[in-house]
Amino acid sequence: MRAAALLDFILPPACAGCGEALSNREALPVCENCRLRLREIPAPCCQRCGFPLGTGHAPSCQECREWPGNLVWVRAVTPLESPATELVHGLKYQGWRRVGIYLGREIGRRLGRALLGVQVIVAVPTSRSRMRRRGYNQAQVIAESLGATLGRPVSAALSRGPSARSQTTVRGRQRLANVKDAFVLSPCAKAELEGRVVLLVDDVITTGATLRAAALTLSPAQPASILAVSFARRLPMAHIEGGPR
Question: Cα–Cα distance between 110 and 30 in angstroms, integer?
């Protein structure tokens, strides 16, 4: 018996969502039950930013009315609730890199039809210190998996500034101030992005401040338009617990 097979026999691989042992039939790091529990963002949503509205559409949506004009469409696969919360946590803090590959494929499976016009993918960057701790940028893992699914290149057009704090340490409108000037445009960005439809990829959307800042940083490269996707989105409890009433 090969060493990997013996290890799986002694310590069966566990689902990153619920911790239950995975069967040999499941090649993914997420069990079928957890995959089925990933529900869609509740409708109706803003046509531009994908936030559950109840009523109204852009430009009246308060979530995206101040976004830069080139950030034209944003969506997430699922609300940030169990098991999505556990999957994102495992990817970011427990070294479950394979989860990021699954998340990229899931974005492609669920949103791929809306992304057919995308020409270049850009991952939202993380800081060097977090790269050292994790060994990877979780958004980059998702972006590369999605790029392979869609057959699109992934550009390193953005990097993180040295003084940017993690968005998990700030709340509310402070998140926008925290990411102001947090990103740096690479010298190759214009050659790769000018006149093209660009897709920003992140793991989670909270307020949209990170995507807004990233889109503003990309603007000098003159992309034709910018779309953005994430695996999960943090929603108010009223939306998480059954959608708008």
Answer: 16
Within 10 Å of residue 243's Cβ, how many Cβ atoms?
Answer: 16
Q: State how far the Cα of 190 lies from the Cα of 173, in Å rounded to an integer.
A: 30
Co-location of 33 and 46 in the same domain: no
What is the rounded distance in angstroms from the CA atom of residue 194 to the CA atom of residue 35? 37
Question: Strands, E, within the chain: which ranges?
Answer: 71-79, 120-123, 154-155, 158-160, 183-185, 197-205, 225-233
d(CA 52, CA 96): 30
Reading phi first (left if > 0) and then psi (alpha if -120 to 50, else beta), residue 135 is in left
What angle is formed at CA 167 by the lines to CA 223 and CA 49, rounded to 5 degrees?
45
Domain match, 23 and 139 both: no
Tell me, yes or no, whether 25 and 134 share the same domain: no
Instruction: Look up the CATH number of the domain holding residue 90.
Output: 3.40.50.2020
245: in domain: no
| Contact between 66 and 77 (Cβ < 8 Å) | no
Evaluate if residue 30 carries a pLDDT over 80. Answer: yes
pLDDT at 23: 76
Query: Would you state the pLDDT for residue 174?
Result: 54
- Structural domain containing residue 130: 42-240
Decide which of 65 and 119 is more confident: 119
